[in-house]
Amino acid sequence: MLQTIPLEFYLILSAIMFMLGVVGVIVRRNAIVIFMSIEMMLNAVNLTLVSFSQFMGDSAGQIFVFFVMAVAAAEAAVGLAIVLALFRKKQTVYVDEVNVLKW
Amino acid sequence: MSTTVILFSILAIAAIATGVSVIINKNPVASAMSLILHFFALAGLYLTLNAQFLAAIQILVYAGAIMVLVVFVVMLLNLGKESALNERFNVRTGIAVSMGVLMIAQLAIAFFGQPTGYNQLSDKAALNGTAESIGTVLFTEYLFPFEAISLLLLVAIVGSILLAKKQQKESV
Does A97 reach chain B within 8 Å, measured CB to CB? Predict the structure, then answer.
C-alpha cells in the first residue's frame, strides 16, 4: 500500500491530541477525568513514536510505545487507587476541594 | 484522494472529536465512553502506519483493560454531574484553551515550515509492525527493560492494593 500521508500530518495530529489532554488537565476538576486526559497525552506521544518509527524504519519506537503502555497501565491502577482512598477519606474527587498538602 | 488520505482524515477527525468530547462532557461516564472511541480511532491510525501489533495492543490494553478500570471506579464512586465553578472556571478555561491553540499554531508552523522530508513509510515498515519483529527486538535487544517493566507492574499491583484497601488502624 502506497503511503501518501507525510509525517507532518501525524505530528500535528499528535500535537492537537496532546494539547487536548493538557487543556483537560487544566480545566477539569474531576480527578478521574484528569486521569483520562493524562492517558490522552500519553497516547498522543505514542502516536508520534509510532509514526517516527514507521517512517524511519526503526522498530525501537514501537518498543518504547509498548513500555509507555505498561507504565500507563501501572499509572492508571495506582492513580485510581489513590482516587478511591481519597474518596473514602474526603467524600470528593474534585481536585480543588482537596488541599491536605497545602499549608 | 486515495483511500489512505480518506481513511487518515476520518480517523484524525474522529480522534480529535472524541478527544474534545472527553474534556467537555460534564458526565464522567460519557467522558470515559468518548475516550474508548478515541482509543479505537488511535488504533485505526496505527493500522494506517502499518503497526498491526500496536493497534491490537492498543485495543486490548487501553480500550479493554484501562478503560474498564476507569469505568469501574466511576461507577463505584457514583458521582453526579460536575457542577461548574462559574467565576474562576471561565477565566481558567479561556486561558487554557487560548494557550493550547497558540501552542498548536506554533507547532504547526514548526512542522510545516521545515518539512521533515519523510513522505512515505519506510520499506521496512510493514515488516517492523508485526508481532514477530517486535517480539524479536523486545526479547533480545530490550530484554532488560522488559524485565524491569514487569517488576514495575508488580510494584504497581502491590501499591494499588495497599492504597485501595481499608485502613485497619489510623497509621498509614
Answer: no
